[in-house]
Specification:
The protein is of the alpha/beta class and 259 residues long. It is built from seven helices and seven strands, in the order βαββαβαβααβααβ. It has a single domain (28-248), classed as 3-Layer(aba) Sandwich (Rossmann fold).
């Protein structure tokens, strides 16, 4: 990582070695973006807590990833339908999903932003979640139980300058989550989003050092978040414990001011 502050030595934070054995025993969870930093951390914790995790990513591979990852183009509705049908045929059930896919998009002013970059960012970040919900929700609603977590961003609250496509896509995800949650609430299915600020993943490398410094200056804790901190929150939202939380976007921002 460049130009980012890391967790201070000796400070107690979420730890990958800390988890709740058996919390997801018998549960089948689908994860997109499973080869990414946030997705892979959540996969590890879910697996450690007993879940059968169906890992998907756009290429079906990931650097340093040892587990099996199935290729899934989240912008392709037919691919989503096939993925869900395969899960049901193989495991006979689906208990939840974590949509951890996403791209940063162009770092550009609105005036100079290429429309192709705008379109691709919204296609992956927003359409990918829409298609996923359309494919997954009928299964969860029909069985009377389900948990869905979706990766948004703190930029959804206020918009990051020179990241119009990313900010707009993540803001739209927040509204999509609220809508979906209301549609399936009566079926004991919850839909929530997580809005991180800067997280210790490869996506930070896609931004200039100047942009990283500007974003970090707005985080009162003065550091980026860790993947373990994301995994801790994501797995809680996907568990039976989060039974009365739905339609919410939970900030994971180190106190970043969004007023």
């Amino acid at each position: 990582m460049t130009n980012v502050a890391t967790t201070p030595a000796g400070k107690l934070t979420a730890d990958p070695a800390t988890f709740y054995p058996g919390r997801f025993t018998g549960r089948v969870i689908l994860v997109t973006g499973a080869a990414g930093g946030l997705g892979s951390a959540a996969v590890d914790r879910l697996a450690n807590e007993g879940a059968t995790v169906v890992c998907t990513d756009v290429t079906g591979t990931g650097e340093g990833i040892s587990r099996e990852i199935t290729a899934l183009d989240v912008t392709d509705r037919a691919a989503w339908d096939t993925a869900v049908a395969t899960i049901m045929a193989t495991h006979g059930r689906l208990d939840g999903a974590l949509f951890a896919h996403g791209i940063q998009g162009p770092e550009s002013s609105i005036t100079d932003m290429p429309f192709a970059g705008w379109s691709k960012t919204l296609s992956v970040n927003l359409d990918g979640c829409f298609h996923g919900l359309a494919a997954v929700l009928p299964v969860l609603a029909s069985q009377g139980y389900g948990r869905i977590g979706i990766l948004s961003s703190i930029s959804a609250r206020e918009g990051n300058p020179f990241q119009a496509a990313y900010s707009a896509s993540k803001a739209a995800v927040v509204s999509l989550v609220k809508t979906a949650a209301k549609e399936v609430a009566a079926h004991n299915v919850t839909v929530n989003a997580i809005a991180p600020s800067m997280m210790q993943t490869r996506l930070l490398e896609d931004l200039s050092p100047e942009r990283n410094a500007a974003l970090l200056s707005r985080v009162p804790m003065g550091r980026v978040g860790t993947t373990a901190e994301f995994a801790a929150l994501a797995t809680w939202l996907l568990s039976t414990e989060a039974s009365y939380v739905t339609g919410q976007t939970l900030d994971l921002s180190g106190g970043r001011n969004t007023a």
